[in-house]
Design brief:
Rossmann fold; single chain; 6 strands; alpha/beta; six-stranded mixed beta sheet; globular; 8 helices
Length: 236
């Protein structure tokens, strides 16, 4: 069993994950030097600067697959091919980045994991949950997060923020990662529905933070949840 603590962030595009990941990482780094017992896994976790990664991406190979999966200007992907890319990326990230860090007792924060594949390909693309969960078991060794923070503000506000973010990125560096944001609204409704199904089914590990809350409100809730799981006091 790994000695670290694995945190994943999930949610619609534009849900504020990137901002909250940066704030959580900074908060954990402020706790540097502390060693606590992580409740639920019974292992000592060295706090401090956590390892922060993302999916797709996070490795040299993964970044190339990210470009294939997210660039809306590229060749259209068949749903099965899209899902296969996500799992190929995930397998590489687990082997190269995530599992070694957990074995060192580190906190790992990952922007998206298999829940995203279940929501976007299983729900949005209509492939279903069963095949996603089976592939996760076979390809990822059934590695599960210790805590999943699922951010679900309203669908409308999430998509609006995602569109603005992609427009800024395109203007700044010419990068296009808007393949999913350009899908029809029904696609995103299916994704949202599947996320709610996952949160209900996996309530032991998924903490749902729902509604159009402020950045500070969401951060406060995240800190409370992480501190509780790691057996840490929350300093005001």
């Amino acid at each position: 069993m790994s000695r670290g603590f694995f945190i994943t962030f999930e949610g619609l595009d534009g849900s504020g994950k990137s901002t909250q990941i940066k704030r959580l990482a900074a908060w954990l780094e402020g706790e540097q030097g502390a060693v606590k017992t992580a409740s639920g896994i019974g292992a000592e976790v060295c706090l401090g600067a956590p390892l922060v990664t993302r999916q797709p991406g996070g490795t040299a190979i993964g970044d190339r697959m990210r470009a294939l999966a997210l660039d809306s200007r590229g060749t259209p992907l068949a749903p099965m091919a899209e899902m296969a890319l996500m799992f190929a990326d995930r397998a590489q990230a687990i082997a190269e980045v995530i599992r070694p860090a957990l074995e060192q007792g580190r906190v790992v924060i990952c922007d998206r994991f298999t829940d995203s594949t279940e929501a976007y390909q299983g729900g949005g693309r209509g492939l279903g949950s069963e095949i996603v969960r089976e592939l996760h078991h076979l390809i990822c060794g059934d590695l599960q997060p210790d805590l999943t923070l699922m951010l679900l503000p309203s669908l409308e506000s999430s998509l609006a923020r995602a569109q603005r973010r992609n427009e800024r990125a395109a203007e700044h560096n010419g990068r296009d990662e808007g393949r999913f944001e350009r899908e029809q609204i029904d696609f995103h409704r299916r994704v949202l529905k599947k996320y709610h199904e996952i949160a209900e089914r996996e309530c032991h590990r998924v903490a749902l933070i729902e509604g159009d809350l402020s950045i500070d409100q969401v951060h406060k809730r995240i800190v409370e949840l992480v501190a509780e799981r790691l057996g840490m006091p929350v300093r005001e």
